[in-house]
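S.,

Sequence below, as promised.
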Amino acid sequence: MPVVGVTKFERFFREEGLDVDKNDLKQYSDVIGRKLRDLLDVGQAAAKQNQRDIIEPRDLPITHGLERSIREFRKLDEQLELSPILDDLAGRPPLEFALADATESRLPAIVGGLSVALAKTIKIVDPAAKIPHREQWERAFRIFDTVL
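The prediction came back faster than expected:
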């Protein structure tokens, strides 16, 4: 990730009450990439169930909590302008089905919402956490793997 991107992510996590460094971003990007892939896999299955070969936004399993985190991210994004970086970070995992344009354009906000939810999860795991340690990251990741 370019230095500008690292700086913006550090600022994003500070907004959520956490101090992270570039070493934390590798763990972060791994879990966010896996969760995005999970959402897209479920979306692909839903599209297939509905006899379509294009994944529409309605196919993605966006929960009420994740939608709330997406809205929070959008407010932060107005200040931090993270969407272009998240668009690159999100990548596009290989799928059998294509993404509708509306689905494709929503991915940066979904990744941003996942990011907000992850930061909040770390704070729930350890409310006193300022600098998340490996154990706190791993607990948050296990929670994400359980509920998302």
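The first helix runs from residue 3 to 15.

Coffee later?
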